[in-house]
Write a structure and sequence with these properties.
Elements (H helix, E strand, L loop, with lengths): L11 E5 L5 E6 H5 L2
Antiparallel strand pairs: 1-2
Length: 34
């Protein structure tokens, strides 16, 4: 089953990563490309 069919949107926001790290300027699109 595929739930995501589009590319990630290009936005920047504060985020808490899975390891507990807080990132003030997290860009989802560039993080997804890694």
């Amino acid at each position: 089953m595929v739930l995501v069919t589009r590319q990630a949107p290009d936005f920047t926001a504060a985020a808490v990563l899975g390891n507990g790290e807080i990132v003030e300027k997290f860009n989802f699109k560039t993080a997804h490309q890694r």
